[in-house]
């Protein structure tokens, strides 16, 4: 064994040094690791190479630590050549140890990266979950809102809309639809919902419901109907949109996360402002397919409960479908209510599940109402 050709910058941990550590010049001589501290007075520490327990560490992971077996003294150095020199001086004893330590470090690093990746994915999932749970909670919050909110939104929308000329409430057509609504009303899912039906002059065969129970029927729809029961079918469907709160649900789907948070903290103002806008556009024209099916089935239930044959609802769909050939633009109701074939089937299938009862024909003069238009 020889004396090292060079000395290295390093340090020492020992309890005899003030603060427990000091910088040191390190050399390897006569089978011993020698550290002379750089402070005044300089202290010399030695560890026989045969007693040196190696470890790697430091911020770089390249710092080599040599400890006595009792751990009371540590000499350390970060110089790249120190490890080589150490191994050379010890006759190759440390090479495999250092190799093993480095391997351990790499494994640890890859474990760290693995957990880092897992954490990143978990965090992303948490954020997405948070986003959707806010929206989800907003949906629940919307459902929990009193029906008066639906009414406020519906009335705001109705008053700001340019629906066309409204028929007088004494008009035979107005009376007809009102009587049908009165007959259906006791069977509505929300018993105290204030339904208000308005007949509006228009060439479109159309009808729609606003949140809260405002319903608009166009004169063309009354003119084209073959029976009062068919009008009852359309009205039951539209009333169901209101009682199933599809309008406000739809607003709930279109509000962003900010409005959802506002809603969760009890601020309905933003929703109301939004409601007026949204109600005029998307709500009137496009409910989801699920919502339409729900309104069909709920409509059938209401008609059945009111002893009005739900068959008329399906008939009306079929009639409009045939009409589509002649006046496609005017048949607005069917264009906002797609999938009619499936729906006719659904209505009929649903009707079959209901107990068979004697339906009572509506004692209403459709002819007189139509003649007055
Ligand atoms: Zn509908």
What are the SSEs and their pairings?
Layout: E1 8-13, E2 21-29, E3 32-37, E4 44-48, E5 53-57, E6 63-67, E7 74-77, H1 80-89, H2 94-144, H3 147-160, H4 172-184, E8 196-200, E9 207-209, E10 214-218, H5 219-224, H6 228-243, H7 246-254, H8 257-264, H9 269-285, H10 289-305, H11 311-323, H12 332-335, H13 340-353, H14 366-371
Parallel strand pairs: 8-10
Antiparallel strand pairs: 1-2, 1-7, 2-3, 3-4, 5-6, 6-7, 9-10
Helix pairs in contact: 2-7, 2-8, 3-9, 4-6, 6-10, 6-11, 7-9, 10-13, 11-13
Zinc ion (ZN) binds at residues 237, 241, 287, 292, 295, 337.
3D structure, described in words:
It is a single chain. It is built from 14 helices and 10 strands. The chain is of the alpha+beta class and 373 residues long. The chain has 2 domains: 8-102, PH-domain like; 146-371, no CATH class. The radius of gyration is 41 Å and the shape is rod-shaped. It starts with 7 loop residues before the first strand and ends with a helix. The relative contact order is 0.09. The mean pLDDT is 83. Residues 237, 241, 287, 292, 295, 337 line the site of zinc ion (ZN). Zinc ion (ZN) binds at residues 237, 241, 287, 292, 295, 337.
Give a quick set of tags describing it.
373 residues; 53% helix; 14% strand; rod-shaped; binds zinc ion
């Amino acid at each position: 064994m020889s004396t090292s050709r060079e000395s290295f910058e390093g340090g020492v941990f020992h309890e005899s040094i003030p603060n427990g550590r000091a910088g040191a010049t390190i050399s390897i001589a006569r089978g011993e690791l020698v550290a002379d501290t750089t402070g005044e007075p300089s202290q010399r520490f030695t560890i026989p190479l045969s007693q040196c327990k190696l470890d790697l560490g430091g911020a770089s992971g390249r710092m080599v630590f040599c400890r006595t077996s009792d751990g009371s003294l540590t000499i350390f150095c970060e110089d790249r050549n120190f490890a080589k020199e150490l191994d050379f001086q010890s006759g190759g004893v440390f090479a495999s140890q250092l190799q093993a330590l480095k391997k351990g470090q790499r494994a640890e690093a890859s474990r760290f990266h693995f957990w880092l990746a897992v954490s990143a994915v978990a965090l992303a999932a948490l954020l997405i979950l948070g986003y959707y749970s806010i929206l989800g909670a907003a949906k629940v919050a919307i459902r929990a809102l009193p029906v008066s909110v639906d009414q406020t939104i519906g009335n705001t929308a109705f008053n700001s809309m340019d629906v066309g000329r409204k028929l007088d409430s004494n008009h035979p057509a107005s009376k007809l639809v009102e009587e049908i609504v009165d007959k259906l009303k006791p069977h509505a899912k929300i018993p105290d919902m204030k339904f208000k039906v308005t007949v509006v002059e228009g060439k479109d065969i159309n009808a729609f419901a606003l949140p809260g129970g405002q319903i608009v029927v166009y004169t063309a729809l009354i003119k084209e109907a073959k029976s009062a029961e068919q009008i009852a079918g359309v009205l039951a469907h539209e009333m169901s949109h209101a009682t199933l709160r599809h309008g406000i649900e739809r607003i709930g789907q279109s509000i962003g996360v900010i409005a959802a948070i506002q809603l969760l903290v009890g601020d309905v103002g933003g929703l109301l402002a939004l409601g007026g806008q949204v109600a005029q556009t998307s709500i009137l024209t496009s409910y989801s397919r699920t919502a339409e099916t729900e309104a069909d089935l709920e409509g059938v239930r209401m008609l059945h409960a009111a002893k009005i044959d739900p068959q008329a609802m399906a008939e009306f769909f079929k009639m409009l479908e045939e009409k589509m050939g002649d006046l496609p633009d005017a048949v607005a109701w069917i264009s906002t209510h797609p999938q009619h074939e499936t729906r006719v089937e659904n209505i009929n299938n649903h009707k079959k599940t209901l107990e068979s009862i004697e339906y009572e024909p509506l004692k209403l003069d459709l002819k007189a109402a139509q003649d007055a238009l």
